[in-house]
Specification:
Elements (H helix, E strand, L loop, with lengths): L1 H8 L16 H11 L11 E7 L9 E6 L5 E6 L4 E6 L8 H39 L1 E2 L5 H6 L7 E2 L5 E6 L5 E7 L5 E3 L10 E3 L8 E4 L2 H11 L3 E3 L6 H8 L6 E4 L7 H13 L2 E3 L8 H6 L5 H4 L23 E3 L3 E2 L3 E6 L5 H14 L12 E6 L4 H14 L7 E3 L9 H15 L4 E7 L12 H18 L2 E7 L15 H5 L2 E8 L2 E9 L8 E14 L5 E12 L3 H19 L4 E2 L2 E5 H9 L11 H7 L11 H7 L3 E5 L2 E4 L2 H11 L3
Parallel strand pairs: 11-12, 11-13, 13-14, 17-21, 17-22, 18-19, 18-20, 20-21
Antiparallel strand pairs: 1-2, 2-3, 3-4, 5-6, 6-7, 7-8, 8-9, 10-12, 15-16, 22-23, 23-24, 24-25, 26-27, 27-29, 28-29
Helix pairs in contact: 6-7, 15-16, 15-18, 15-19, 16-17
């Protein structure tokens, strides 16, 4: 056979397995790691334990770097200073490292960091020389530059490039020029390549003779503050640099006030808080999310409205004024939805969350009372994550059955967006602000949470970004925000929302829908500043919509919530059972009256309880009957006599003789026993 194969193929085939593919060289492995990190790699790799710089992208600034050791355990690190990338690397040698090799690798880490820092310092020194030449040779900017005109501020020492960009200097703590910031006509800002920015600032105005030293994130804000107050203002250039700028500012011995940007993600507030906590400064910010102090002034507001914040309002002295009753709760729906609250309605899929929330919304938008409870009329904005088309039939059905006007004061979105991102929040706010110009928005509904939130709903950090976004909507529009969400998974999940527990602490109002077979109930789980409202039972009622047909000419149906009344409380149910038992015992024992009140003795009651059903009794054990008819057992609802005595429904007329005193309640249960 081998001969035949040799004749056909020119050689003898073997059954030996294919050889293992060769392991890539350490140099190739490092190149591959660099490419996976998004870097433009150098032409070749040298593993000599020295730092090597290269152009990490199309810009020829040599901000990319690597260090590699090419011995028996090749390893090292690489990164890009401009891109903020830094990664360690170890070649695959086909085995685990020995303890001695691991110790060697650990000792090299410190050496790599030293080489990296030295190289970066040399690069920044070289850059400092370059930016010094640019700054010295540049012409002074005029106040007519388009960016300055747009921001309504002047040039306080800015310079200008040959292509018309503004130049702002970044000085180090010792007054050395570290880098430059370039500002285009449209406000685009870029730093000089490879320049050092951390800890760098620029002060507008003179500190000598100043009463207060202000700090702002950007040039336009700093110029606005300096021009309107006459006081010096430090340009920190970024929110993350506020702590470093504050550390330098407090050394002058002046009161330091940070003018933070009120950005959507709360970055300005975050770093301002850090700076104030560490260095004893105070901070203020515009009351409107998405604005800095320059935006605030450009919108026609007074800077003094921001600066007037009292720095010591965190602690309040207890006085007679403080002890007076606070303002009463203002309600959108009495007992169910306070004004300017953050609330949530959760429930299982298919439980009717949207129908319930839409019913609440339509009552508010039309000014009609809900379940006998007063509502405050106002505009409602319904942010529909699945679009507004699906809501049309539901609104039409509600209007038809409830007789609402066809132009109800409600607005519905066409799609969802990620409210916990700056772009998504600003997208939603531009439309909300437009509505707010002509309508008093009293409620914003978000249906559902996961359609308007990016990130992990189980993450407390991601959840906080959504809470902050909702709070920002509340503060700016002075409105309530209600979120629709799904319940969690598991046997007892109907009473809690899915995801992070951070929601429970942040909510002012928490409602849930429970489903038990065909029974649906709206339950109040949390009401921050008031009593819990009683639960409401409901069903979904199918409605044929007048004049609506599908493509086949068949009628189109919607649905509305049909409220069935308050759900009986646990205590009410226990009282009902106790009264019913008394009525049965009273009737079986002769239905005697004392005056016009039903009366029974302990002996009669206990005798009926122990009598067999065949003899007209309840047929229970003597020990249980004794508990039920013992007056001192009122703490347990199963101990009927004690329970009724504790609730004031029975009065002991004489020893072991008891009279029922609530005529109306007893009459109901008396009638029920007559049917048994």
């Amino acid at each position: 056979m081998a001969g035949n194969l040799e004749a056909i193929f020119g050689h003898v085939l073997t059954t030996d397995p294919d050889p293992a593919p060769p392991v890539a060289t350490p140099e190739d492995q490092l190149l591959d790691a660099m490419m996976r990190a998004g870097l433009r790699v150098p032409d070749r790799i040298i593993l000599d334990g020295k730092i090597h710089r290269f152009n990490s992208d199309e810009k020829k600034d040599k901000t990319g770097w690597y260090v590699g050791y090419g011995d028996a355990t090749p390893a090292g690190a690489f990164g890009c200073w401009r891109a903020g990338i830094e990664k360690s690397w170890r070649a695959d040698i086909g085995r685990d490292l020995t303890p001695a090799e691991q110790m060697l690798q650990a000792s090299r880490v410190a050496e790599i960091r030293r080489l990296r820092d030295e190289a970066r310092a040399k690069l920044q020194m070289a850059t400092a020389d370059v930016v010094a030449d640019i700054w010295t040779g540049a012409q002074d900017a005029t106040d007519e530059h388009p960016y300055l005109v747009k921001k309504g501020v002047k040039s306080h020492g800015l310079k200008i490039t040959g292509d018309g960009r503004l130049i702002s200097p970044l000085y180090g703590p010792a007054g050395e020029l570290m880098s430059l910031q370039y500002i285009s006509h449209d406000g685009t800002k870029r730093y000089h390549q490879s320049g050092q920015t951390g800890g760098a600032t620029w002060t507008l105005g003179s500190i000598s003779g100043a009463k207060t030293l202000y700090i702002a994130e950007g040039y336009a804000t700093a110029a606005t503050v300096h021009e309107q107050t006459g006081e010096p203002c430090v340009v920190a250039y970024s929110a993350s640099n506020l702590p470093a700028a504050t550390e330098q500012a407090v050394r002058h011995g002046l009161p330091v006030v940070i003018i933070a940007d009120n950005d959507v993600g709360g970055i300005g507030r975050k770093y301002a808080d850090q700076a104030c906590a560490k260095y004893g400064a105070t901070y203020v910010m515009p009351p409107v999310v998405g604005m800095d102090a320059n935006d605030w002034v450009q919108a026609g507001n007074a800077l003094t409205d921001i600066l007037a914040k009292e720095p010591d309002d965190w602690l309040v002295k207890v006085t007679s004024d403080w002890l007076t009753q606070p303002a009463p709760i203002k309600w959108i729906i009495k007992g169910w939805m306070p004004e300017q609250c953050l609330g949530m309605l959760h429930g299982p899929s298919g439980s009717g969350k949207t129908f319930v929330m839409l019913d609440l919304a339509m009552h508010i938008a039309t000014g009609n009372a809900w379940q006998g409870r007063a509502t405050k009329p106002g505009a409602v904005v319904y942010l529909a994550g699945e679009g507004n088309y699906g809501l049309r039939s539901r609104v039409a059905a509600w209007m038809q059955q409830r007789g609402g006007a066809q132009d109800a004061n409600i607005f519905v979105s066409k799609s969802g967006c990620n409210l916990n991102t700056p772009d998504g929040w600003l997208h939603a706010m531009q439309y909300l602000r437009r509505v707010a110009q002509t309508h008093d928005i009293i409620l914003v509904i978000v249906d559902t949470l996961h359609r308007f939130m990016t990130g992990d709903e189980n993450s407390a950090e991601d959840t906080k970004t959504m809470i902050d976004a909702c709070d920002a909507i509340k503060r700016e529009l002075l409105t309530a925000v209600m979120l629709l969400h799904h319940t969690g998974h598991g046997e007892n999940a109907q009473n809690r929302a899915r995801g992070s527990s951070a929601w429970r602490g942040a909510l002012d109002v928490e409602m849930g829908i429970t489903v038990n077979g065909d029974k649906k109930t709206l339950v109040m789980h949390k009401m921050k500043d008031a009593e819990l409202a009683p639960s409401q039972r409901f069903e979904l009622q199918k409605v044929e919509i007048d004049g609506w047909v599908d493509e086949d000419g068949e009628p189109v149906y919607g649905a509305i919530v049909n409220w069935l009344g308050e759900s009986e409380s646990k205590e009410d149910a226990q009282i009902k059972r106790a009264v019913h038992e008394f009525a049965r015992a009273w009737r079986a024992c002769g239905a005697r009256y004392l005056g016009d009140r039903p009366v029974i003795t302990t002996y009669e009651w206990r005798n009926w309880l122990t009598r067999t059903p065949e003899n007209g009794g309840a047929g229970i054990a003597e020990s249980t009957a004794r508990k039920k008819t013992t007056p001192t057992m009122g703490s347990s609802p199963s101990h009927t006599l004690g329970w009724l005595l504790a609730k004031g429904l029975l009065v002991e007329q004489a020893v072991d003789i008891f009279v029922f005193v609530d005529d109306e309640l007893f009459a109901v249960h008396k009638a029920a026993t007559e049917m048994i």
